[in-house]
Amino acid sequence: SADDLENHLKYLSDLDASRASQGYGLVRFVIWAIPIMGFLGTVIGITEAIACLSPTQLDNISGVVAGLGTAFDTTATALALSMVLMFLQFVIERFEQALLARVDDAAWTALAGRFQTR
User: Fold this and answer.
1) Dihedral sign, CA of 45, 51, 55, 61?
2) What does DSSP assign to residue 112?
3) For residue 100, what are the CA distances in angstroms to 17, 24, 83, 86, 104?
4) Number of helices and strands (H, E) in the chain?
5) Under 8 Å between Cβ of 45 and 67
6) CB 108 within 8 A of CB 9
7) How far apart are CA 6 and CA 22, in angstroms?
8) Helix or strand holding residue 68 (H, E)
């Protein structure tokens, strides 16, 4: 009925928004996991650097520097990639929200006034 139309369209709008949000579950997981992978690279790099340290070879620190380079490179790369992906996700979600708002407006415009009120 026309009396329930607005509530029903609101329900459908909320349902669409919920489905859209659920569709980004894997993307959110990947964006969440990328910094963790970078920190794992940091741990591996520092472990390699420490493994190259020995009291008898303190003059040769090239292995230590290489390990630390790996550590900081993986962290920086992961954080930069995470920021780019978060920004892209934000832009895409905003576009999708705007599209859903236009669909809601079009549905209301097309259906309002077509049903008899009680």
Assistant:
1) negative
2) T
3) 8, 16, 26, 21, 6
4) 3, 0
5) yes
6) yes
7) 24
8) helix 62-111
Per-residue pLDDT of the chain (118 residues; tens, 9 = 90+): 667 777 788 888 888 888 887 778 888 899 889 989 888 888 888 887 777 776 666 666 776 777 788 788 888 999 999 999 999 999 998 998 898 889 888 887 887 767 666 6
Joined together, the tokens standing for residue 105 give 């407006």
Query: Residue 115: enclosing H or E segment and its boundaries?
Result: none
Q: Closest Cα to residue 78, out of 25, 106, 29, 40?
A: 40
What pTM does this model have?
0.68
